[in-house]
Design a protein that fits this description.
Number of strands: 32
Distance between the termini: 26 Å
Shape: globular
Structural class: mainly beta
Radius of gyration: 22 Å
Strand content: over 45%
Helix content: 10-25%
């Protein structure tokens, strides 16, 4: 069953059975101008009270943290040569200043809004990663890793020179805090998509020098407590899981559900795609599927995994290969947001301000309109915001 939350004028309508879902949903409003980009407000949806509250931030907010499973949202503002880090309690939607971190040079707001990362590590800590725009940016993608303690209102700063063991956080291509904040999953590698890496491999496989410059990709799983301990006490990190992929391979993270992580590995030499499941608590990895084909993209929908087949004829028919059923299905022209054996959600853009959602469940079809949306894949919940 698809759960739906509709918000209009701070009133919330829910169609959710009694099951475990996130207590809060957070939808920040994003404003993009010619010379600035920021979050002026945030909508906080409280499932217990079935109310939505729109909060106006004290400062222009340039970064917001992830908020899954948490009771707080962390924010960062780049003001002059300072970074102001604050904390928003989602229960009563109250804002609290934590620290102001001063640097010698002023920040470019637009650059740091895109390049910086802010991770929620729980009720007490957050982690701020700053992009590297210095002369050695080709060596490290991030210049500083800052652990912020909201209880003590203090912070700890790490650089690649002072904390060499944290190299994964200075050079990652993707980083996630998962398993209710217990683990950090880091993907390393300078190629940002399988298509980019596939083209690079085809182009440079005959040139050893350029080919080597592509670099290996890897996935590392680290306990969040070990990361904090390493920053504070400069202790060595220990990987829960560490998988490395050769130059003719690429890897991507598909989904997280509690302690489980799904990821896909492609092999360009054998033209094959394999799906793996990693148990973060048990520290084990199992291969689930392998097929002799490369796909445009891989998606997890419901209890199935799909390989999206490239539309070579440009007729927008949308063919998807089901790994579990071992067959190809036709989706249609509209963009699919969710799909399982009984349900399907597609959406299309009507104009600049409105989206149309079509929800099919068994033989029933429902139509909804919204200006913004979020989809909670873990709890199969669609959040629709109308303004």
């Amino acid at each position: 069953m698809i759960n739906i939350i509709k918000i209009k004028d701070q009133e919330v309508t829910m169609s959710i059975p009694d099951q475990k879902i996130n207590r809060f949903y957070v939808i920040p409003e994003y404003v993009l101008g010619e010379s600035s980009a920021y979050y002026p407000t945030v909508d906080v949806i409280n499932r217990d009270t079935q109310r939505a509250h729109s909060h106006v931030f004290t400062n222009e907010i340039h970064k917001v943290s992830n908020h899954d499973y948490q009771s707080y949202l962390y924010t960062a503002s780049f003001v002059g040569n300072s970074i102001i880090v604050s904390k928003l309690a989602l229960n009563d939607v109250s804002e609290e200043l934590i620290v102001s971190i001063n640097f010698t040079e002023p920040f470019n707001k637009m650059s740091y809004m895109w390049g910086a990362k802010l991770f929620n590590l729980g009720d007490r800590y957050c982690l701020l990663l700053l992009p590297n725009y210095g002369p050695n940016s080709y060596v490290h993608t991030h210049s500083h890793v800052i652990l912020i303690d909201s209880l003590e209102k203090s912070y700890y700063t790490a650089t690649s020179d002072t904390h060499s063991d944290l190299i994964a956080l200075f050079d990652y291509e993707r980083c996630c805090v998962v398993n209710e904040g217990k683990h950090m999953v880091v993907k390393l590698g300078r190629m940002f998509s399988s298509h980019e890496r596939r083209k690079g491999w085809k182009r440079y496989k005959k040139s050893a020098l350029d080919y080597d410059n592509m670099g290996e990709e890897s996935i590392r799983v680290i306990k969040t407590s070990d990361v904090m301990d390493s920053i504070i006490h400069k202790r060595q990190l220990h990987d829960v899981i560490n998988k490395t992929f050769d130059l003719h391979e690429t890897v991507d993270i598909l989904e997280f559900k509690q302690e489980k992580m799904l990821y896909v590995a492609e092999n360009f030499e054998t033209n094959s795609t394999a799906i793996f499941c990693a148990d973060l608590n048990e520290e084990k990895v199992e291969k689930l599927y392998e097929v002799a084909e490369l796909f445009w993209s891989i998606r997890v929908e419901g209890n199935d995994i799909y390989g999206v087949i490239e539309d070579r004829n440009e007729d927008h028919t949308g063919e998807w290969y089901s790994f579990t059923k071992e067959k190809t299905i036709v989706i249609g022209e509209k963009f699919p947001l969710y799909l399982d054996e009984e349900s399907c959600i597609t959406f299309s853009k009507i104009n600049e301000d409105q989206l149309l959602f079509e929800i099919k469940e068994l033989d029933e079809v429902s139509i909804f309109y919204a200006t913004e949306y979020q989809y909670d894949y873990e709890n199969n919940t669609l959040i629709l915001l109308s303004k």
